[in-house]
């Protein structure tokens, strides 16, 4: 990937650019698995947390590709350390190594030319933590709800999300999937931000992990409409694209790999994501994986603090 090795381009931009390429080619794995009809579902236990061969193979592929170009990164992936791209069970799913000419055809050539602040320009590889969710929305994936599925690659530095890449392998926009990136304070690409309508509060929440406490929290907000959908990435896109005003999950269950990339994209378009009490998540490598304070995300233009206040004024949520 000659252009990505150029020392003229800051590491941060080379990493974001490479991540968009890798996420995009990982989408072919999910599509191949669906075509084969063999999902090889494993129950990871603890409620509703299935894993398929697509989760394993995408994780292995993304980790291998990132490590090839950026060996000093810390990568924390949902499916753990044990999956390897050399595994004969899914060798057939791993995309062939692209030739240099293909790699030079960047999806977002503009990324390498972005003007970035000094604090991003000075980022060192060894200080970056990648939070990887190879397949988000796996429950929906196993039931054929393919539009809810995304691959999420969050890039964190100093405990905060500095960039996020979201790939929809089964986007209705394109048969090759859709890739989106966001860099807070700098820009975003691959989608268009649309402000949601105001006055009629539309709340999006889980479709497959609900419980009475989640329903009670939504009730506090007196929604005009509730949209139940799968995947943290998918629901964050609802906020980016004007479908919903807020995304609420008043429960434990979400992990840092579910939120890092969506949070970066949402911030890049002017939205906000915190736990239910308005506290920011921390994405250092030694942090707890769980987002045990639940999730509150608001679309651009929404008053995030208003939502926090409703929860503080309501019955204690006790997640
Ligand atoms: N109780 C849970 N256990 C494991 N993962 C969960 C749980 N609740 C939510 N998640 C993860 O958060 C995502 C968003 O939740 P939901 O789809 O219910 O809104 C899920 O797709 C799932 O990610 P994944 O599919 O990557 O395991
Ligand atoms: Mg999972
Ligand atoms: Mg997930
Ligand atoms: Mg996942």
SSE order and pairing:
Layout: H1 2-5, H2 11-36, E1 42-43, E2 50-51, H3 53-69, E3 74-77, H4 100-104, H5 118-121, E4 128-136, H6 138-142, E5 150-157, E6 160-168, E7 178-183, E8 187-189, E9 202-206, H7 212-220, E10 225-229, H8 232-240, E11 246-249, H9 256-269, E12 272-274, E13 295-298, H10 304-313
Parallel strand pairs: 3-4, 9-10, 9-11
Antiparallel strand pairs: 1-2, 4-5, 5-6, 6-7, 7-8, 11-13, 12-13
Helix pairs in contact: 2-3, 8-9
Strand order, sheet with most strands: 3-4-5-6-7-8
Residue runs with pLDDT of under 50 for 5 or more positions:
none
Structural class designation = alpha+beta
Q: What's the count of strands?
A: 13
Q: How far is the first residue's CA from the last residue's CA?
A: 46 Å
Q: Please trace the helix and strand order, writing H or E for each element.
A: HHEEHEHHEHEEEEEHEHEHEEH
- Sheet with the most strands? 6 strands, mixed
Written account of the structure:
With 319 residues, this protein is of the alpha+beta class. The protein is built from ten helices and 13 strands. The strands form three sheets. It has a six-stranded mixed sheet with strand order 3-4-5-6-7-8, with helices on both faces. Strands 10-9-11-13-12 form a five-stranded mixed sheet, with helices on both faces. The protein has a two-stranded antiparallel sheet with strand order 1-2. A hairpin with a 3-residue loop joins β7 and β8. The mean pLDDT is 93. The structure holds adenosine-2'-5'-diphosphate and magnesium ion (3 copies).
């Amino acid at each position: 990937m000659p252009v990505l090795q150029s020392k003229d381009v800051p590491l941060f931009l080379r990493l974001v650019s490479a991540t968009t390429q890798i996420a995009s080619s990982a989408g072919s794995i999910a599509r191949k698995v669906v075509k084969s009809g063999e999902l090889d579902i494993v129950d990871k236990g603890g409620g509703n947390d299935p894993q398929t061969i697509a989760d394993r193979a995408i994780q292995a592929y993304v980790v291998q590709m990132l490590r090839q170009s950026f060996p000093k990164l810390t990568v924390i992936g949902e499916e753990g350390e044990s999956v390897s791209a050399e595994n004969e069970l899914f060798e057939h799913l791993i995309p062939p190594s692209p030739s240099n000419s293909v790699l030079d055809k960047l999806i977002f050539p503009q990324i390498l030319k972005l003007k970035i602040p000094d604090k991003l320009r000075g980022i060192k590889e060894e200080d970056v933590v990648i939070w990887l969710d190879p397949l988000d929305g796996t429950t929906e994936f196993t039931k054929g709800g393919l539009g809810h599925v995304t691959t999420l690659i969050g890039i964190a530095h100093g405990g905060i999300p500095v960039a996020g890449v979201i790939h929809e392998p089964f986007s209705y926009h394109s048969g090759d999937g859709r890739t989106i990136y966001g860099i807070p304070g700098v820009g975003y690409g691959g989608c268009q931000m649309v402000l949601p309508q105001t006055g009629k509060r539309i709340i999006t929440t889980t479709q497959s992990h609900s419980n009475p406490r989640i329903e009670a929290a939504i009730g506090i907000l007196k929604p005009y409409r509730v949209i139940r959908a799968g995947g943290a990435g998918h629901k964050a896109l609802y906020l980016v694209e004007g479908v919903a005003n807020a995304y609420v999950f008043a429960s434990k269950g979400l992990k840092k790999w579910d939120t890092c990339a969506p949070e970066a994209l949402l911030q890049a378009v002017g939205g906000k994501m915190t736990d239910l009490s308005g506290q920011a998540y921390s994405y250092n490598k030694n942090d707890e994986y769980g987002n045990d304070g639940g999730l509150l995300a608001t679309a651009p233009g929404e008053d995030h603090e208003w939502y926090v206040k409703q929860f503080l004024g309501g019955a204690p949520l006790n997640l």
